[in-house]
Amino acid sequence: MKLRNWAMGFVLASSVSGLAVALSDAWDVTPVPEALAKVGEWAPRDLQEPAVPVERLHTMASSHSWASPVVLQPLALDLASADDVSPEVDPPMTTWSRKIASGETLDTLLREAGLDASVRAEVALALGAEYDLRRLRPGHDLTVVKSLGDTLQSVVLSVDNGVTVEAIFGDRTVTRTLNPNPETLMLAGETAIDSSLFTALDDAAIPARFAVDLAQMLGGTVDFRRELKGGETLQVLWREARVGDERIGQPEITFAALNIGDALYEVVWPEDGTGRATIYIDGEVLRVFAQPVDGARLSSVFGQRRHPVYGNVRMHTGVDFAAAKGTPVNATAPGRITFVGWRGGYGRVVEIAHGTDTKTRYAHLSAVTDGMSVGQRVMAGDIIGNVGATGTATGPNLHYEVLVDGRPTDPLSDDRLAAATADNSQEALAAARLEEARMRFEAHLATMLATDQNERL
């Protein structure tokens, strides 16, 4: 009974105590300061999108307690491609280029290009592996490419007929020869001569160098200075090799026709490369002539002249053909070699007998054909040596003489060589060759005129 009374008293006391505390909180309230109340009202703003792209967050390491890490996706941006952002830029280079002049060597040009002796030797070895440097001639092109640090990158040698030899320097040296694949074109032209052959050809866009070929062929038959009155018609058919729009090598004349007064002179050059041209007058064979130097410039004629070395007036016993050193020299008629060697101011010489009374002399040669010896027989157009400047000469040229009974005569007017070359059994063939050349000229001229008219339309 006492225990029950004690428990009831404990519960009653607890109830009274809780009621007292509640009444105490309701009656005793102290006001909250205004600043503290504002602080209590603060809440974080809504999250804003970042102003700059946020990189994708890496997945949290497994040691962390988060089960599912939060990953933010980057904003989609229209970025430029990598090629636009950082283009590949070639290192800056310097290029030096020049044509080889008469008397210059490869080493001369490489020194001028700023290469030291050891590098020049390396270049010579590299180019020499692909090209015989002894064949370098005036007019060949040399190009040297270096980095701004003066390190050699490449050397390109452009030689004859569009052929180039390229040496590339780096971890290892690579040399190669680049041969073009030219297209051969046949072209025809017609012009009127008002002042000179050269001017007439040049005005008609026909290679003006053909004036030299015509002077060689007809110089002994036609006196151009006296017989050309103006208005004469000249027709020319030629071929040239091209790569694209660039002409490779020298054009080659194959047919020419010239009306002077009442006479028609025609020249047909062979297709076999022998250099033996046939001259016709009014359709009949006049003579056959092989040029000593193909396409060379006639630089000095037969007769009295002021000597280019000694300065006094003296007899010039032949004709001179200016050409680059090393240009092939051809026999002008069939015969037998009577001399190979040196003759004072003539330098290196080859002499050929044509019958019993006529001889030709080829002087200032830089070299003669290997194996050539006295007594050897040659044909018209055979190569007997190369143009040079040996003996008394101011530059590379061929001095060509015709001697009759030991006395010099004008090579462009004497017909004895024509007699040595003529072959009556070939007259029918010569007539057919002339007719074919005429037909080819007419066909190509008609094609070119039609093409030109279409272009104007």
Q: What would you say about this model in short?
A:
The protein is of the alpha+beta class and 457 residues long. Helices cover 25% and strands 33% of the residues.
What does this entry look like structurally?
The protein is of the alpha+beta class. The protein has 3 domains: 93-178, Nuclear Transport Factor 2, Chain: A (Roll), CATH 3.10.450; 180-290 and 425-457, Nuclear Transport Factor 2, Chain: A (Roll), CATH 3.10.450; 293-422, Distorted Sandwich (Glucose Permease (Domain IIA)). The protein contains 10 helices and 24 strands. It has helices spanning 2-27, 34-40, 82-85, 106-112, 117-128, 197-203, 210-218, 224-227, 416-421, 427-456; strands at 93-99, 141-147, 152-158, 164-168, 174-178, 183-193, 232-243, 246-260, 263-268, 276-281, 284-290, 297-300, 303-306, 313-316, 319-322, 328-330, 335-342, 348-354, 358-365, 367-368, 377-378, 383-386, 397-404, 407-409. Strands 12, 15, 17, 18, 19, 21, 23 and 24 form an 8-stranded antiparallel beta sheet that branches. It has a 6-stranded antiparallel beta sheet with strand order 6-7-8-9-10-11, with helices on both faces. The longest helix is centred in the last third of the chain and has 30 residues, at 427-456. It is globular and about 125 Å long. The protein starts with a helix and ends with a helix.
